[in-house]
Amino acid sequence: MNFSQKVGLFALILISLGYVYFSFFAEAGFHFNSPIVRQFSNQTEELPEIIDDNINDENDVVEKKENKTKTVKIFVSDSNGNLRSLNRECDMNVEKSCFAYAIKELVNAPTKWEKSKGFTSEIPQGTKILSIREGEGSVMIDLSSNFEGGGGTESTYTRVKQLIKTAKANTKQPVYLYINGHQAEVIGGEGIMIKQPLSERSLDD
């Protein structure tokens, strides 16, 4: 067999092998089952769904903060001169103490809308809260001397009653009134005696 015949025979073998491959393996579907490929495929299919728990937690915190309020009561006079309670909403995320918030609202009351409805307060303008101290066994309210000024005996009685009722409505602890750092024993120029701690009987003779 000469060289040309050998080349022809080799080419025929290649053509035969190509025919067998494309006729048999290609139609049957040839799959390369490498262990690495199988492992990667399985891992991809079994990847768990990613859930970000932090998103829900943050939303829960925001929602709790939005709902964290407490209703407090303050007392003012209505159009007939009777003491009436008004509600205020204390935002517990902002205010350190809802009791202190109630006293602050009392000193600033009434609002313009409440005035239009006939509500008034005998607490003199310019009265300042010097401090409010809440201990384990008592509460101390320290007001400026403006609290005692003007209005006569009836006005003084009313403002002290406003303070007493507001204090008692917002804490169960004994409450003591101080004026300029000294515990109040006499209120106003008329010398109204006041018994402490504050109670409904503090102004009784």
Explain briefly what this protein structure is.
The protein has 205 residues and is α+β, with helices and mostly antiparallel strands.
Q: Report the sheet with the most strands, covering strand number, pairing sense and barrel closure.
A: 4 strands, mixed
Uncertain runs are 34-41
The residue fraction in helices comes out at 40-55%
* Number of contiguous helices: 6
Tally of strands = 8
Based on CA atoms alone, the radius of gyration comes out at 43 Å
End-to-end CA span:
144 Å
* Overall SS class: alpha+beta
Q: What is the overall pLDDT average?
A: 83
Strand content: 15-25%
Which H/E pattern describes the elements?
Answer: HHHEEHHEEHEEEE
3D shape? rod-shaped
Task: Give the strand order, joined by hyphens, for the main sheet.
Answer: 3-4-5-6
**What's the assembly state of these chains?**
single chain
Write up what this structure looks like:
It is a single chain. By secondary structure, the chain is an alpha+beta fold. It has a domain at 69-193. It contains six helices and eight strands; from the N terminus they run αααββααββαββββ. The chain has a four-stranded mixed sheet, with helices on one face. α4 (98-108) packs antiparallel against α6. Residues 34-41 have low confidence and may be disordered.
Strand and helix layout:
Layout: H1 3-28, H2 35-45, H3 53-67, E1 69-77, E2 83-91, H4 98-108, H5 112-116, E3 129-134, E4 139-143, H6 152-170, E5 175-179, E6 182-183, E7 186-187, E8 192-193
Parallel strand pairs: 4-5
Antiparallel strand pairs: 1-2, 3-4, 5-6, 7-8
